[in-house]
Design goal:
With 254 residues, this protein is an alpha/beta fold. Helices cover 48% and strands 16% of the residues. β7, α12 and β8 (231-234) form a beta-alpha-beta unit.
Length: 254
């Protein structure tokens, strides 16, 4: 194991409000990988405002995040979309500001999506978890296109005892969430979710795993409204061995 490093965990709004178990799982995985983890006081990363075209409020939120996480060796995010905001969109947001552009670029350079960080920075090759299920893994658009993450979560999940992991037939196709896309185009968004759920069932899966809560909440909500019997979980919960006593997303208790 490489030398210990100081990691600031960006918990994300969705994990903080809807699924704090993801944060606890991320901390456990990072500590197992030899990291000293801290969750500094933090705001939203500004992604909703940025996607809505509100650059002024997005920049104000981004400045809070940059200042909060500058002291750490690395910033780790259990979400491809929020990680992409820091890595890709912060530098673009401040490109005309000579001071904040440098600070944004420095933060972007040390920010990583959780699974990418565990594998590519900390050298993790396997997980200690055990969970018996037939699952498919969903790649979020931001994980794929903004962070280049695809093989890392699969490698870790395939090491989990009892977990049979499959891929979607169209694994690079969006689930239909897309933040404001699901609000602006609800009919299209719902149809894309239906297609993804049908694909999971065709693979023989009883569970959908992913690294982005936005996708998981979107799919779990759609499945519940249609009465589909399929579970949804963040992959970090499985890898950390914390899923057995935690209900799937959208369920109150087991």
């Amino acid at each position: 194991m490489t030398a210990r490093v100081q990691v600031g965990l960006l918990i994300t709004c969705l994990a903080d409000i809807f699924r704090p178990e993801v944060g606890f799982a991320a901390v456990k995985l990072l500590e197992q990988a030899g990291c000293d983890v801290e969750v500094p006081p933090q705001t939203c990363c500004g992604q909703p405002a940025y996607n809505a075209g509100d650059a002024r409020d997005a920049a104000a939120l981004a400045k809070n995040i940059i200042a909060a996480f500058e002291p750490f060796d690395y910033v780790v995010v259990p979400s491809g979309s929020c990680a992409g905001m820091l890595r890709v969109h912060y530098p673009a947001l401040f490109e005309s500001d000579p001071v904040w552009s440098l600070r944004a670029a420095a933060l972007a350079a040390k920010t990583h999506e959780l699974f990418s960080f565990l594998v590519n920075v900390r050298g993790l090759k396997s997980a200690e978890g055990e969970f018996h299920a037939d699952a498919v893994y969903h790649d979020s658009c931001s994980s794929l296109r903004e962070n280049g993450v695809m093989s890392e979560p699969r490698m870790l999940l395939k090491s989990v005892c009892g977990l049979k992991l499959r891929d979607f037939a169209d694994k690079e196709v969006c689930c239909g969430f897309g933040g404001f896309f699901s609000v602006k185009y609800p009919e299209i968004s719902a149809r894309m979710a239906d297609d993804k759920i049908a694909d999971a069932k065709a693979r023989g899966a009883s569970m959908v795993l992913a690294g982005d809560l936005g996708c998981l909440l979107h799919l779990a909500g759609r499945a519940a409204r249609k009465g589909e019997r399929i579970e949804f979980r963040h992959a970090a919960e499985i890898l950390a061995g914390m899923a057995a006593n935690t209900p799937p997303i959208g369920e109150v208790s087991r």
